[in-house]
């Protein structure tokens, strides 16, 4: 039986870094949210100075669905996947994205494990300002990060395998180990 781990968290929390650590622990393929976003976003203003056009996220949703359809159709039944998503509570698009992952896991009869990654505002602002993020079209705006931390909540959908993990003072290795232990428990308890 395969597993779908969905790492949810605000930009800068370390979703991809943790996914890389976790991928080696549970032998999983990593599918970062920027794999869906960047093919579309790279077609736009390279300086990222203009606001994103209305409706652009519908195109990234189509890319995401195509990837999930291919996984469902062609990956082996015991394949494990780790996905990342910057879901926000109360946001309809975040809910639709979550549902895409959930539905794909169900179609594959994989154990679905949503993991909320939380981080204190100051640490998140420090992490989001990393210069390496800009190269991957990831947000580096500290003020937006602070505002998001103060006004929004990471998507929190009740699920039997859900885990919430505060990674403010945890290394990516420690975070990945905690998630691995949770995944092992979920697999032992069945789907």
Overview of the molecule:
The radius of gyration is 16 Å and the shape is globular. The termini are close together. The protein is of the alpha/beta class and 191 residues long. It has eight helices and five strands, in the order βαβααβαβαααβα. The chain has a five-stranded parallel beta sheet, with helices on both faces. The mean pLDDT is 88. α3 (56-74) runs parallel beside α4 and α5 (121-128) runs antiparallel to α7 (142-151). 51% of the residues lie in helices and 15% in strands.
Report the count of strand segments.
Answer: 5
Q: Record the strand order, biggest sheet.
A: 2-3-1-4-5
Total count of helical runs of at least 4 residues: 8
Q: What would you report as the Rg, rounded to the nearest angstrom?
A: 16 Å
**Main sheet?**
5 strands, parallel
What would you call the shape?
A: globular
Q: Would you tell me the overall average pLDDT?
A: 88
End-to-end C-alpha gap:
9 Å
Strand share of the residues?
Answer: 5-15%
Summarize the helices and strands and which ones pair or pack.
Blueprint: E1 3-8, H1 15-26, E2 28-31, H2 33-41, H3 56-74, E3 80-85, H4 92-108, E4 111-118, H5 121-128, H6 131-135, H7 142-151, E5 163-166, H8 172-188
Parallel strand pairs: 1-3, 1-4, 2-3, 4-5
Helix pairs in contact: 1-8, 2-3, 3-4, 5-7
């Amino acid at each position: 039986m395969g597993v779908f781990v969905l790492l949810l968290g605000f930009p800068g929390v370390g979703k991809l870094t943790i996914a890389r650590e976790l991928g080696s622990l549970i032998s999983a393929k990593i599918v970062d949210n920027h794999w869906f976003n960047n093919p579309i976003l790279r077609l736009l203003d390279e300086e990222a100075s203009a606001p994103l056009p209305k409706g652009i996220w519908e195109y990234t949703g189509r890319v995401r669905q195509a990837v999930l359809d291919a996984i469902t159709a062609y990956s082996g039944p015991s394949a494990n996947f780790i996905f990342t998503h910057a879901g926000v509570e109360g946001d309809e698009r975040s809910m639709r994205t979550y549902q895409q992952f959930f539905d794909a896991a169900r179609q594959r009869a994989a154990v679905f494990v949503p993991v909320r990654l939380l981080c204190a505002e100051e640490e998140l602002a420090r992490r989001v300002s990393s210069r390496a993020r800009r190269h991957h079209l990831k947000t580096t705006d500290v003020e937006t990060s602070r505002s998001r931390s103060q006004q929004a909540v990471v998507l929190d959908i009740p699920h039997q395998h859900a885990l919430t993990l505060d990674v403010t003072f945890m290394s990516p290795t420690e975070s990945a180990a905690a998630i691995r232990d949770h995944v092992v428990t979920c697999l032992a308890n069945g789907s």
